[in-house]
Amino acid sequence: IPVTLAVIPALTDGKLVARLDEAPHATAAIHGWAHRNHASEGQKKQELGPQRPREAVLDDLARGLSRITGLHGARAVPMLVPPWNRIDAGLVSELGSMGFAALSVYGPPKPASLAVVNSNVDIMDWHGTRGCRDHGILVQAIIAQLRHAFDGGEPVGLLAHHLVHDESAWLFLERLFTVTAKTEACAWLPIRTLIGRDAGKGK
CATH number of the domain that 108 lies in? Predict the structure, then answer.
């Protein structure tokens, strides 16, 4: 199963590189810079927002891209995954010139100057148990997204949060991957394939 990890550049090191050497289907994307909240009290958490000077945010992103690429080499994917899935809209137009090929947040994609490959099914129940969502509800969400994809929409993109998974979350993923592996009509696509597809839409 191809998986893309959103890696925090300021907090990562060679240990992850060594671990991913054992996982040939894993790639590393850029998860902001330090996953630090700069929003004011009462605002939604955001690292890449308007709270700081534009140049400071862009510098963080450039450093993040450089660090992940330097550490992971060919495994690195020049895709930005903003912390908390939030980025100031005014920054998106700068990403391509910095070397980013894609942006990934959560939810329906918005038009952008670079490829957008979003996740759209979050397996965690953030507003309730803060554990895995009900498995039946998750299956319904995946089916709904598949129907959307069949109508020309985006493919299913699972959003996982491995640091906070409970037993139910791991069980759901195990069952899902087991079932889909036996289904000829299903294929989990590498992130670079999805980036290429989305980039091609604008041509």
Answer: 3.20.20.370
